[in-house]
Amino acid sequence: MRLTIYHKTHYRFDDEVTYGLQQLRKTPKTSHQQYVISWQTKVEGGRKELSFEDHHNNLVELISFDRNATEVTVSSQGDVELEDTRGIVGRHLGPSPLWLYGKATPRTQAKAGVKSLLKKLDSKDRGLETMHALSALIRETIKFRVGSSQPHWTAEDSITAGEGVCQDHTHIFLACARALGVEARYVSGYLMLNDRIVQDAMHAWAEAHIEGLGWVGFDISNGISPDTRYVRVATGLDYMDAAPISGTRIGGSGERLDVQIEVTQQ
Prior knowledge:
This protein folds into two domains: 2-82 and 245-265, Immunoglobulin-like; 88-242, C8orf32 fold (Roll), CATH 3.10.620.30. The chain is built from five helices and 15 strands. The chain has helices at residues 112-119, 128-141, 155-161, 166-179, 239-242; strands at 2-24, 34-44, 46-53, 59-65, 69-82, 88-90, 143-144, 163-164, 184-191, 198-199, 203-210, 214-218, 230-236, 245-251, 256-265.
């Protein structure tokens, strides 16, 4: 399947920006199950400084804001060819060592809520069936509700609230999998939806490293493994490593942010 993706981020500020620097992780990379045919990013009200691959093998673009800017627009567009591998990404390629993905982060610590979830699992081995069962348990226990969580929430915050979004489901999965001794990582990317074209956010899911298969994807919020509607963009230990945009700014108070994403099949 071939998908066309358009991703626009538009900043408006009440006051002029004195200084702004952002890291973008919006560019998919070619791998064994996806081939990037074309991709380009344009910046208005700023400029691209450089690009590099980070220690999670993500393509990162560094952009700066024009001095005294009151609006900045970042637009990305491209075509990606997808092959259905039933969620199997394959062997670990680095550059970070595999053991790194077994380490908990502040957002994925296995505290009381995670331990309570794990008690409900019939099996606690490191196999594929256990990871599917874990994904189903999280989806049944933590209700998906748009706008129900905050960006800074941890796995425990979402478990306490009993609801969350795809980011929260993914953090809970990572916390549980790592507590079982399974290496797991956060994935951000694009998803073609069946009911609409225009979206206001990228999607998130998890990957667990399964012996004999390598990395395998689990979309907890939708209860499936990624297929040809999913485009992988960035991975990391949690959301902070794979965030589409992160950075710093001086000035530019009164920020208003509009995001528009369109994913369509050619």
